[in-house]
Amino acid sequence: MKQSTSYILAAFLSAAVSTQVNADPLGYVSDSSGQIVRDSSGFCVHTSSWTPANAVVPGCDGYVAKKPAPKVVAAPAPAPAPVPAPAPVVVPAPTPVVVPPPAPVVKAAPKLVPKTIALDGANFANASAKLSKSADAKLDEVVDTAKKNPDIKLSVTGYTDNRGKKASNEKLSAQRAESVKAYLVKHGVAADRISTAGHGETDQFGDNKTAAGRAANRRVELSYTIEEVAK
Known about the structure:
alpha+beta, 231 residues, 4 helices, 4 strands, CATH 3.30.1330.60
């Protein structure tokens, strides 16, 4: 029996020696794979250099590896306080410029203006109703006015001096008025716009005692009323 125990111990020592080739400098015997060798009781096998200071291997000699202290993660910095949006700039509406309306242009109201053109005795042959060429300028003026003012009416009145018989003078004055009308119609004035009359020796304004006065009384007057704007 004593011999048998010695045999077992010798085998154990032989195994221990065979594994010690991998002696760990931390004081523990390790096998070829680097694992610490344990005895039959489960204890870690020490090397001859083991000291209590080597008891820092987890699971050996009651050493329990300390769990690393939990890493303290700093709380995230608080989000910056929101910056309030700037208040909108309210631009006041421009004050409308009130432009006063232009003063109304007051047009002068036209007024009726009577016009009279006289053809004296020098514009007719003596004791005749035939017009002389000297009357053309004044009669052309009347034609131009009549064409520019198609609404006006013309009145043609003939007069004589006091020589001769009254009835003859009235007839001659009417004939002279008709001669003037004929000239106007020939030059484009409608006949229905022209009235004629002969007043003989009435309405004398020249002195029949003189040649000049008598010539002034032997006349034809053209009268019309036209609208004109006062200047």
